[in-house]
Design goal:
Length: about 230
């Protein structure tokens, strides 16, 4: 009975052992698939290689993949997605930038690149990237969420500073008051108004409670500024 049990265990364990692969063995399969012109399997094997060892897979990409070929973006995307999933924002950003080299107007790549810039603490760079997204897709939800909140928060900071500076003036002259009011009006037009435009597009696509609350605040500020 013990012999039969051991034999049974060996038989059910054998397929698993046979299926076990090292990163280099999997990458050899990638090369073989590429040589045979089989892009689908090549991408699948490469994805498995990334799961086994992302550093080895990345090195393979840089040293073995023809960057001018149509397979290169597919493999770069696999690396970008994997690094993004693991919150390695620096590496993910690197590969989304790589993808944008060949597809500079790809909205999905631009949005992902902006997300990585936020993750890296590069909000101003993300701002420029999201603004480019809106030039290509004015209703893009991700871009409008970010820009709506960004413009609103920046306007709030500027407004608080302007009000604080004005309160420091003991007895403001008519000229100083007029300059203060002009500054608020300009801030509304170039800050709050831009935030409202983006947030309105957000609520038109889904019922965001937070976006609606911010829009209500902007309406109150508008009444204050234009009274």
């Amino acid at each position: 009975m013990k012999t039969l049990t051991l034999l049974f265990y060996f038989l059910i364990s054998l397929p698993v052992a046979l299926l076990a692969q090292t990163p280099d063995e999997m990458l050899q399969k990638v090369s073989a698939a590429i040589d045979e012109g089989q892009q689908g399997p090549a991408v699948s094997y490469f994805r498995q290689a990334i799961n086994l060892n992302s550093d080895r897979a990345e090195m393979y990409y840089w040293t073995h993949v023809d960057k001018r070929g149509e397979l290169a973006p597919k493999l770069a995307n696999e690396l970008a997605v994997a690094y993004k999933k693991n919150r390695n924002y620096d590496k993910a950003y690197l590969f989304y930038k790589e993808l944008l080299q060949t597809s500079p107007d790809n909205v999905d790549y631009l949005v992902a690149c902006a997300e990585m810039q936020v993750g890296r603490g590069q909000e101003k760079d993300a701002l420029r990237t999201y603004e480019k997204v809106l030039q290509l897709d004015a209703d893009n939800l991700d871009a409008n969420i970010f820009l709506g909140n960004y413009y609103y928060l920046m306007a709030e900071q500027r407004k608080q500073k302007m009000e604080s500076d004005f309160k420091k003036i003991g007895s403001p002259t008519k000229m100083q008051y007029a300059r203060y009011r002009d500054g608020l009006f300009d801030l509304f037009a170039n800050g709050y108004e831009r935030a409202r435009g983006s947030l309105q597009k957000v609520v038109s696509q889904f019922p965001s409670t937070e976006a609606k609350k911010t829009l209500d605040k902007i309406l109150l500020i508008e009444k204050e500024v234009k009274r």
